[in-house]
Design brief:
Strand order of the largest sheet: 1-2-5-4-3-12
Oligomer: single chain
Shape: elongated
Number of helices: 2
Number of domains: 2
Structural class: alpha+beta
CATH architecture of the largest domain: Beta Barrel
CATH superfamily of the largest domain: Rod shape-determining protein MreC, domain 1
Number of strands: 12
Largest sheet: 6 strands, antiparallel, barrel
Order of helices and strands: HHEEEEEEEEEEEE
Strand content: 25-35%
CATH class of the largest domain: Mainly Beta
């Protein structure tokens, strides 16, 4: 109906233009009348175009924003990895520098796996017989003594950590040179010292280092820090617990040592 009215008025305007001057008052009047109708007729198309343009732009913006957020997360993860590697390398440089006085051969290895059995504190490293590794070889990380090699293959080795319940290491107190044997407690990052005299000069915070006895671990490397000294009246001995200098959760790279006079170098098959 609306379209018919517009057509009739248009024909009337054309007819009028053919009979009268272009400045005719009737033509102007009719044009004024149909202008709102033309505007109304064009509105659906204009609304559709606006909606299509804006909705598409918003969708594109959301997609771009999601992509930028993903890229930001990836960059943050890469930055954290770089910071972690830089810290690990700094610790290794410090430890390698402290070993200069040993004048012994050493090489860096990578921890490949951690034993899934919670009762066994074992890790596998990417050095084996082909690299000259041997049974009983001392293994350190950037913070101190990690353990020793207990099993070998051509390309890998298993390292028994000092915290394993079957491991024991001769130590001495850095502060006063008092000697003891530190055994693994079977708990992560924990050692125990048993059968100590009640009068022993030992207190929380004391640093334990390798004593060099047993000719397996070189003298002077950090092992643990005393956490608690336990002396109960009536008991024949005192005891102590210590936290290992190394932290397996932060260890990724380790160092294999070849002391100047290695002992017990039985090789794996």
């Amino acid at each position: 109906m609306r379209l018919g009215i517009v057509l009739l008025l248009s024909f009337a305007l054309i007819f009028s233009d053919s009979k009268q001057d272009h400045s005719s008052t009737l033509r102007v009047f009719i044009a004024t009348l149909i202008s709102p109708l033309e505007f109304a007729a064009s509105m659906p198309t204009a609304i559709f175009n606006w909606f299509d343009t804006n909705v598409t732009s918003r969708s594109d913006l959301i997609k771009q924003l999601n992509n930028l957020q993903d890229e930001r997360l990836l960059l943050q993860a890469q930055a954290q990895t770089l910071v972690s590697l830089e810290a690990e390398n700094a610790h290794l440089r410090q430890l390698l520098g402290s070993m200069e006085r040993q004048k012994s051969r050493r090489t860096v290895a990578e921890i490949l796996t951690v034993d899934a059995d919670p009762n066994k504190h074992l890790v596998t490293i990417n050095r084996g017989i082909s690299d000259g590794a041997y049974l009983g070889q001392p293994v350190l990380d950037a913070r101190g003594v990690l353990g020793q090699i207990v099993d070998l293959s051509m390309l890998t080795s298993k390292v028994l950590l000092v915290s394993d319940a079957s491991h024991a290491i001769p130590v001495k107190v850095l502060r006063n040179g008092v000697r003891a044997i530190a055994k693994g407690s079977g708990k992560p990052n924990e050692l125990i010292l048993e059968q100590l005299p009640h009068t022993i000069d030992l207190k929380p915070g004391d640093v334990l280092i390798t004593s060099g006895l047993g000719m397996r671990f070189p003298d002077g490397f950090p092992v643990a820090v005393i956490r608690q000294f336990i002396s109960i009246p009536g008991n024949p001995f005192a005891s102590a617990t210590a936290t290992t200098s190394t932290d397996l959760s932060r260890s990724g790279l380790v160092i294999l040592l070849w002391p100047e006079i290695p002992t017990n170098k039985s090789r794996g098959n």
